[in-house]
Amino acid sequence: MPSHSPYAPSAWRWVPTLYFCEGVPYVVAMTVSVIMYKSLGISNTDIAFYTSWLYLPWVIKPLWSPLVDLIRTKRSWIFSLQFVVGAALAMIALPVPAPFFFRATLALFWLLAFSSATHDIAADGFYLLALPPHQQAAFVGVRSTFYRLAMIAGQGGLVYLAGTLQETTGNAHRAWAGVFFLLAALFVLAGLYHLVVLPRPAGDRPAGLTQRPVADFLSVFATFFRKRDIKVILGFLLLFRLAEAQLLKLVAPFLLDGRNVGGLGLTTRQVGLLYGTIGIIALLLGGLAGGYTISRFGLKRMLWPMLISMHLPIAVFVVLAVMQPSNLAIIGGALTIEQFGYGFGFTAYMVYMMMVSAGEHRTTHYAICTGFMALGMMLPGMPAGWIQDHLGYVRFFIWVCIATIPSFVATALIKVEPTYGRKTQPLARESPPLP
């Protein structure tokens, strides 16, 4: 049983590593896969379309989340799924040098994505069971920080390592295979570590089937879709990131593509440093600033400024595409501005989902919100590569700027509680799961 100290050593032994392990597979499936496929010669159209499908497990994870409660303990789900993630990463490494690597690795990325989404469910549920409420509040910043550090390690460290190995060996396929084998070994070690250190809370036991499991399951979903103004809520959840969803699929290809086709011609290692490390740090700082700002002034007052801060910096990519600077400091500065604005503005979206989820069944309702969030990333991202291939980078980034308009319309229609998010009012009694 965990100690009642707000900073119990037992919690420090597993909370940081658990949320680091939650973040790494997500960033590998969503971002590292894009960079790998681009460096291995796959077209932007195919990259954007097929990797966007990897969002699907996070879209539909609320559909099988009750199984995690009904079957086995959440503790056993966690370390078992970390072994599965390790196996999936090792299997991704095997076909990378082969001619059929694209189809084979995509199938294995699907296994990785489903395992990661299920791991998220178990980890977030375990967090609520293993820690008393005061510790949940004390460690919410810790879990968020280590989740973001996982993004830096994946999008920055792994990509930088792959670029270094590629320059050393002269073989991109072998470089990426080596990275995935290393990551697989680390996840096996993580599973063994958590098998030993995870506590055994008394409440962590299978719920078992009720007399009406299907009816109970559907009733929880029905209460969400009976919320007032649900159509407006869903429109906002789906449209807020319409522009960003398209942009994110093409940032790495734009940085890696040669100048003769409108890109910036960076190496894989440079992308890992600028976009995967400096950019993610700016994203983290933007998120921290956004959280502080909302706690100070409230969501209603800050919603429009944060919406503008998220979308206006997209224009830096139009400038980069037109000017095609070679100075890394200029490129890094532009990425920093865009990522900080994205992190700052995206906080408003997260807090709005907490507001919508408040009340009975808040954990399940928040999971449904994150499912629609993932759907809002998946659908626009699928045709983004095809659009870019037909428009070129300059006109594609102009199009992305135009695509911000629906999010402004959706924001104008939603209703926000006047004081929600301010420090005088807690955001939620429970710590919501990370997206």
Short description:
The chain is an all-alpha fold and 435 residues long. The chain has helices at 9-39, 44-52, 56-70, 74-93, 101-130, 133-169, 172-197, 213-225, 230-239, 242-256, 268-297, 299-311, 315-323, 328-357, 362-381, 384-402, 405-413.
Task: Please write out the topology.
Elements: H1 9-39, H2 44-52, H3 56-70, H4 74-93, H5 101-130, H6 133-169, H7 172-197, H8 213-225, H9 230-239, H10 242-256, H11 268-297, H12 299-311, H13 315-323, H14 328-357, H15 362-381, H16 384-402, H17 405-413
Helix pairs in contact: 1-2, 1-5, 1-6, 1-7, 1-10, 2-16, 3-5, 3-15, 4-5, 4-7, 6-7, 6-11, 9-15, 9-17, 10-15, 10-16, 11-12, 11-14, 12-14, 13-16, 14-15
Describe this structure in words.
This protein has two domains: 9-198, Growth Hormone, Chain: A; 220-416, MFS general substrate transporter like domains (Growth Hormone, Chain: A). It is mainly α and 435 residues long. It is globular. The protein has 17 helices and no strands. The longest helix has 37 residues, at 133-169. The protein is 77% helix and 0% strand. The chain has helices spanning 9-39, 44-52, 56-70, 74-93, 101-130, 133-169, 172-197, 213-225, 230-239, 242-256, 268-297, 299-311, 315-323, 328-357, 362-381, 384-402, 405-413.
